[in-house]
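User: I'm putting together notes for a lab meeting next week and I want to include a structural view of one of the chains we've been expressing. I don't have a solved structure, so I'd like a prediction I can at least talk through. The sequence is below, exactly as it appears in our construct file.
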Amino acid sequence: MHGNALAGELPPELGQLSHLRSLSFHANSLQGTLPTQLGQLSQLRIVSAYMNSFSGSVPTEIGNLHKTLTRLVLGRSNLDSIPSEIGRLTRLEVLNLYDSRVDEGSDKGSILTAKPLEWIRIKRQLDADESLQELADPNLRDSPGQRLSKVLR
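Assistant: Thanks for the context. Below is the predicted structure for the 153-residue chain, given as structure tokens.
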């Protein structure tokens, strides 16, 4: 559904698509909050929702997808926080929050506990020096099972 000039909000009924494995609706004009019902999609592997106007927080229910979710692409949005539950995503390989409005109150440390995270792009929502140093902390990067290979600025 990407690039189809879709507008409006994602309906909560999305959570009824129990066999859905990939949800790609990037490059549209969607707004509102991401529905909490995303956490009910127990087979969901990929969420690609960048380049929309979503606001609010990534729902805490995203942590329910800890057995399946491998890619979470939410950049270029108006999302303003990420929950600590993102650290429960044990299969997460790609996280893109680039050019979003994720605030200082988000638990950025929990991002690095997600294993086997290989790629992360978070440029504009972090303070350049202090937060990048936090992400580059060798104790976090080299923790058991952690395969963080890129922190892109």
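A couple of points you could mention at the meeting. The beta strands are 7-8, 22-24, 29-32, 46-48, 53-57, 71-73, 78-81, 94-96, 119-121, 150-152. The radius of gyration is 15 Å.

User: Perfect, that's what I needed.
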